[in-house]
Amino acid sequence: MNLILSLKDGCVGLNAMTSADFTVYFFSLPSNKIELWAYLESSRFTDPVFREFFKERDVVAEERRVALENRPVGKLVEEVLSLGFKDHPYRISVIGPMSNIQNITRRDVRNYFTTNYSAKNLVIGVAGDIYPDQLKKLAKKYFSKLKPGRKNPRVFTTEPKQAGEKTVTIYEESQPWLLIGYHCPSELHDDFYKFSVLDNILTNGRSSRLYKKVVTEDKSAMFIGSMAGFPGTKYPSLYVFFTLPTSGHTNKELEKAIMAEVKNLKENPVTKEELKSAKARLKVTLLRQMKQDQWFLIELLQSEILLGSWEKAFEVLEKIEKITVKDIQELAKKYFTLNNFIIARIEKKEEVKK
Predict the structure, then answer these.
(1) Which residues neighbour 283 within 8 Å (Cβ) at sequence distance 6 or greater?
(2) What is the pLDDT of residues 313-345, one digit of tens each?
(3) CA-to-CA distance for 13 and 37, rounded, in angstroms?
(4) Which of 305, 79, 113, 281 has the alpha carbon at shortest distance from 200?
(5) Phi first, then psi: what are they for 342, rounded to 5°?
(6) Range(s) for CATH 3.30.830.10 in the chain?
(7) In angstroms, rounded to a whole number, what is the distance separating the alpha carbons of residues 92 and 85?
(8) Which of 9, 54, 234, 298, by CA, is between 20 and 30 Å from 191?
(9) β-strand 341-348 against 166-172: which pairing, if any?
(10) Cα gap 92→79, rounded to integer Å
(11) Architecture label for domain 2-143
């Protein structure tokens, strides 16, 4: 019923997404439909109807087959998670094991909803042509019906330090892939944003070191990327490089190139010009996102959920500006160690036979 009403009244972008750290529901309505939004969105949490449960359970199972079980890269991702995390819940993919999906019951879902979907775990964001006083009245009218519940505590499990290098190779009749990971801190740690700057030095943009080396010059990779916070940022996770070789080239070549650059970072400081350019590009990316209401709003909500306050979203630019050449070199020395190292590969079956 909610979906039909929303579409009739000008709704666009009705959707949801789930990460390792949070779930988001979002849609957009004309500003003169703000009360309809409050009614619909509050109903999602105060009066849920778990209709078509079995049909939707089958849909989720099929999503897992398509995204993970029938895709070599999906299999690789799950292997990386199991290697990277022994104790922490990050070791389980967001969609979860197939056995869980197939055996979950309607009662399980309702119990989970009752326990977790309460006021103390809910953060609401609204952006657009609205008046704050009007929004406060509507929030009180509709959302005050939510039960307070209890705030979910932060996960207390501390992932033990890795004892040594971990590797996994999957043999498939598919394109080879290479993923290299190192343990990194959560978004609450000052080092997290140093990794974001490092992305722009190493892989983000045509002038970045590894992109220039393996994509532009050697043409040994179709692309190369890196990111901090895999699979999440609320807790310590992984900093990963991911790439795939072009025809005639191998994972070993790309691994060698990445490890050579890691060694270089430890031994030689990046130039002031590189750092300045990387910081500028990162800040431009963040500012462009803030120009879009939806992404700006999501950024504020993430800060509230992950960092404890929406106001911390505005501290990021200042943190980035304070990062120095020395910080980047010390970051590499601290985290890019063999005891912190994970490497995962997909290799072609026919090439292994040779």
Answers:
(1) 317, 320, 321
(2) 999 999 999 999 999 999 999 999 999 999 999
(3) 13
(4) 281
(5) -130, 135
(6) 2-143, 166-353
(7) 9
(8) 298
(9) parallel
(10) 10
(11) 2-Layer Sandwich (3.30)
